[in-house]
Design goal:
The protein is of the alpha/beta class. The chain has nine helices and eight strands. The chain binds adenosine monophosphate.
């Protein structure tokens, strides 16, 4: 199954993608994660992307298109993949279409998470993850059961993304509405769009996502 997860920053794409990985045995391709890894490893791509990412702006299409194309060619993507954070512009959506066609592949569906905008800034400003296993937490909604200790792996080291602050979040939301939201109409016109209510708790949203995925491959 090949799918795109669409939704504004903070809509729960990353969280839902991890659950889709567990339920469907396909890898999670997050351009944000891949770019953050490139920044941490100080690669040429990472050096080009770092300042743009810290400002909450979009990295150039050439860079992200190339990263995604290389990643899709890896053997673990042979049964499909979940794209999270890509495509983010109509130009990237066109590039993805041409890229998949060139590889003899097509998309099964595009899942759009519908969320209430007012909740997004609060959700993003409070989030942090375990540095070791990547488990996600939130200052208000999901603190570790034992303070300072990861529920999943026991690590005591946590990370907050530099771009998860209120000011950068507002820039990222503007970029989403200007550049990415038009993809909803683009994929609707192709008959691929499936909307899911993203405002429930994690398990409820996951159920909604799984339902539309099963319908899409029926
Ligand atoms: P994310 O983890 O998806 O919120 O992405 C974090 C940051 O990485 C974004 O604010 C952008 O600077 C950059 N980024 C991730 N994916 C893309 C993309 N498809 N196109 C351009 N920039 C991207």
């Amino acid at each position: 199954m090949r799918l795109i997860l669409l939704g504004p920053p903070g809509s729960g794409k990353g969280t839902q993608a991890k659950l889709i990985v567990d339920n469907n045995a396909i890898p999670h391709l997050s351009t944000g994660d891949m770019l953050r890894q490139a920044v941490a490893a100080k690669t040429e791509t990472g050096k080009k992307a770092q300042a743009v990412m810290n400002a909450g702006k979009l990295v150039s299409d050439d860079i992200v298109n190339a990263i995604v194309s290389d990643r899709i060619d890896m053997s673990d993507c042979s049964n499909g993949f979940i794209l999270d954070g890509y495509p983010r512009t109509l130009k990237q959506a066109d590039a993805l279409g041409a890229m998949l066609e060139g590889k003899g592949l097509s998309l099964n569906c595009v899942v759009a998470l519908r969320v209430d905008d007012d909740a997004l800034v609060e959700r993003v400003s409070g989030r942090f993850t375990c540095s070791k296993c990547g488990e996600g937490y939130h200052d208000k909604y999901k603190l570790p059961q034992v303070p300072g200790k990861c529920d999943r792996c026991g690590s005591k080291i946590f990370t907050r993304r530099v771009d998860d602050n209120e000011e950068t979040m507002r820039t990222r939301l503007q970029a989403y509405y200007k550049e990415t939201a038009p993809l909803i109409g683009f994929y609707y016109a192709k008959g691929l769009l499936r909307g899911v209510d993203g405002m429930g708790d994690i398990a409820e949203v996951a159920e909604g996502v799984q339902r539309v995925l099963e319908e899409a491959v029926r």
